[in-house]
Amino acid sequence: MAAKLGHGKRAAGKSSGGSELQGPAVTAEVILWAVRWYLMFPISYRDLELMLQDRGVNIAHTTIFRWIQAYAPELEKRIRPHLYPSDGSWRVDETYVKVKGRWTYLYRAVDSRGQTIDFMLSARRDTAAAKRFFGKALGQPHTVNSRTVTVDKNPAYPRAVAEMKAGGELWRRSRLRQIKYLNNIVEQDHRRIKRLTRPELGFGSFWTARRTLTGYEVMAMMRKGQVRRVGGRDIRAQATFVVELFDVAA
After folding, report:
1. What is the C-alpha separation between 194 and 151, in angstroms, rounded?
2. What is d(CA 229, CA 58) in angstroms, rounded to the nearest whole number?
């Protein structure tokens, strides 16, 4: 499925048996509605299939899955330039996400206000992964070089910070703090991700996990009020903003 939705474009879905749906094609607006709702609320693909049927749209849950995989990364790419700048107080932690029956690590960082800085799924929890995460976060258009980096007692973080300072990747005066209670803000923020991942009981592959988690995180940014001129509690404004991002006629 193409990532760009044009004016008046319609996308035909498929039934569970793989045959084309009978009747009207699914509009781009319906696709974006389904993507937004799946990424905002703790529902399964089958639950959303039933919700769409209730609105007269007969689409298979497997098709909804394909929509999420196609549009979640595209949402992130298009929303990032519209985010308010984060502050320089980073709170960094990892949470666990099950992929194919094994635990993986979702690195996450928020600032002192709880605004999301960045996230990264990793199969490992080590110095190399921490450096990749810090480098990814520093490369985002809405982030600034950190004044402080607050982490837990994971020994990989001091090594990662020291190596990045030595290499000029991290501000040399950035201060590392291993103070657990200061990280309560990011640990509490993990709950949103845990709540969203619960209905599907784990991911089938690292690739699908990474794309779906990207969608969860970017919609959380919007609901936190991080998008310029879009209120965090204004669902209608958020829906309009997403439609405009994909250049879809309302």
Report:
1. 20
2. 35
Find how far residue 190's CA is from the centre of its chain: 12
Residues 6+ apart with CB under 8 A from 125: 94, 105, 154, 156
Q: What string of pLDDT tens digits covers the 250 residues of the chain?
A: 444 454 334 444 443 333 333 334 688 999 999 999 999 999 999 999 999 999 899 999 999 999 999 999 999 999 999 999 999 999 999 999 999 999 999 999 999 999 999 999 999 999 999 999 999 999 999 998 899 999 999 999 999 999 999 999 999 999 999 998 889 999 999 999 999 998 877 899 999 999 999 999 999 999 999 999 999 999 999 999 999 999 865 4
DSSP letters of 117-138? EEEEEES--SHHHHHHHHHHHH
For residue 97, list its beta bridge partners: 104
Q: How many other CB atoms sit within 10 Å of the CB of residue 173?
A: 9
Nearest to 59 by CA among 112, 1, 113: 1
Distance, in Å, from the CA atom of 14 to the CA atom of 179, rounded to the nearest integer, reads 51
Beta strands in 54-140 (DSSP E): 89-99, 102-110, 116-122
Joined tokens for residue 209: 């996990």
Tokens of 73: 């990364």
